[in-house]
Specification:
Blueprint lengths: L4 H9 L13 H18 L6 E7 L6 E3 L6 E8 L6 E3 L1 E2 L2 H7 L12 E5 L2 E5 L7 E7 L17 H17 L3 H16 L4 H6 L23
Parallel strand pairs: 5-6
Antiparallel strand pairs: 1-8, 2-7, 3-4, 3-8, 6-7
Helix pairs in contact: 1-2, 1-4, 2-4, 4-5
Length: about 220
């Protein structure tokens, strides 16, 4: 069990000399500090919990498909072959390359070999000639902390790190720069002593190693068109 939203809020209030009866900071104010800390951690570190895989069908003659939500980035795309039923990785294509090769002719259709991204759409090349299955691996954004999502869905060792990031932001707003700097340094020390999940999963692999984190750390619904 990790630190839930109530424990995280207490970790902000107590160092500021507040208790549950104080109204100077509302829960919404404190949650914003905590979520700003979560957003930073979410952006800078590759948590396994952010990796999601989904499959979806392609429709013959349709090249554009919406990206599932929530998402942060598309990692890989693969198509299941019509005859061999094997997974074939798709090559990312720059938009200018895609546009130069795209052909509206029915004879130009086939099993996709590449894709490009525009806005919230994935465009496949060539346009499918069959109802293929696509396997998409993507990164999602972590859900904000709140009363209804009371615990961050990442390893619990990071919950304290999120709390210190929220406290650091609160102390800056209160003008206590010296304590803010002290808390920030403590947060950095915790981050740099945390063993990434990837290193644990590598186990006995002869190439296994510990990732060294930077010391300068700052703190599907599918439809066609």
């Amino acid at each position: 069990m990790g630190l839930n939203i109530n424990a995280l809020r207490s970790g902000i209030k107590k160092p500021l000399g507040m208790d549950d009866t104080d109204t100077e900071l509302t829960n919404d104010d404190i949650d914003l500090y905590l979520n700003r800390s979560l957003w930073e951690v979410d952006n800078k570190f590759p948590f396994k919990e952010k990796e999601k895989t989904v499959t979806f069908p392609l429709i013959e003659g349709i090249r554009n498909y919406s990206v599932p939500v929530p998402y942060e980035a598309v990692k890989t795309l693969a198509v299941i072959g019509q005859y061999d039923e094997l997974s074939h990785p798709l090559r990312y294509m720059e938009v200018f390359e895609y546009n130069s090769l795209y052909d509206t002719s029915e004879f130009a259709r086939g099993q996709p070999t590449g894709y490009t991204r525009e806005n919230n759409f994935i465009r496949f090349y060539p346009t499918p000639d069959y109802e293929y299955t696509i396997v998409l691996k993507r990164l999602i954004l972590l859900d904000d902390l709140s009363d209804t999502n009371s615990e961050a869905n990442i390893p619990r060792v990071w919950h304290e790190i999120i709390m210190f990031g929220g406290l650091w932001r609160a102390l800056i707003d209160y003008g206590d720069i010296a304590r803010a700097n002290h808390i920030k340094n403590h947060q950095i020390a915790l981050i740099n002593s945390t063993v990434p999940v990837q290193a644990k999963e590598e186990g006995q692999d002869k190439f296994a190693g510990v990732e060294v984190l930077r010391s300068d750390y700052d703190g599907a619904q599918w439809w066609k068109r």
